[in-house]
Amino acid sequence: VAAPKIPKEVIKEVVAADIISKNIFTVGPNDTLNYVIRLFADKKISGSPVLKGNNLVGIITESDVVNFMESKDLLTGERAGLKTLSEIKVQDIMHKSPVFIHEYAKLSEIAAVMEKHDITRLPVLNDRRELAGIVTRSDVMRGVSKEMLFKMLQKREIEKTKIETAIDEIFEIVEKKGSINSNEIRKRLSIPEDKIEEWGKILERHGLIELFYPPIGKPYFRKKMK
User: Helix or strand or coil: residue 74?
Assistant: First the structure.
């Protein structure tokens, strides 16, 4: 009996459009800082794209707000220059040349841009240069898991659920522990030793973790330092 054909969607390479978060909260350039602070608190987010119509014109983050509130330009002691949160606009403090990626950018490209600019989220634009969504480091991690799944299915090496669960658990363990020996990961997850190091190298290649090889013993998986 002939082996079943692998669906085309399984063979393709994972790109930004496959992993983006589309349920995002945006703000406008004329929205007030007071509104942004409430939005971030209510929605438990730390950044928003700034849209003018359908076009991306900036990015504002929690750090931008905090840094601005601590600066001398806000709530100064000078009565003539006094400003309130309801008077300051997003366009006054947003990043006006936001870094972004195209919806067909590969995982390696996304990770490289994040590392180059030391950021953890990126706006994703479509062919019309409209905002299609946001991709985060966690989304990239899930994309790596998905891409590994595609390759594994092509080789018929392991079932889908085990790959998805294992790669997510490895990343979560490293994020929580900061540094952990690969042998300890093997004991926790009951994964073959060769697979652990192979998957670790893939995660490292995508900028999600770092591998450290001591002179003696098994390699360590380390949390990626910002």
Answer: coil
Q: Taking the alpha carbons of 197, 201, 202, 204 in that order, is the dihedral positive or negative?
A: positive
**Structure token digits, residue 65:** 């707000």
Burial-class residue 189 by CB neighbours within 10 Å (0-12, 13-18, 19+).
middle
Q: Taking phi first (over 0 means left), then psi (-120 to 50 degrees means alpha), and beta for anything else, what does residue 29 get? A: alpha
Q: How far is CA 7 from the centre of its chain?
A: 27
> DSSP letters along 10-33, please?
HHSPPBHHHH-B-----B-TTSBH
Per-residue pLDDT of the chain (226 residues; tens, 9 = 90+): 233 343 444 445 788 888 888 888 999 999 998 899 899 989 888 889 999 988 899 999 888 888 887 764 444 434 334 467 788 899 999 988 889 999 999 888 998 898 898 888 899 998 888 899 999 888 888 787 777 666 655 554 445 545 556 777 888 888 888 899 888 888 888 877 777 887 788 788 777 888 888 888 888 998 876 5
Residue with tokens 């730390």: 46
**CA–CA separation, 176 and 165 (whole Å):** 16
E strands, 71-139, where?
101-102, 121-125, 131-136
SS3 75: coil
Of residues 33, 208, 58, 38, the one with CA closest to residue 120:
208
Amino acid symbol at 59:
I
Q: Please identify which residue in the block is written with the tokens 């000078």.
A: 78
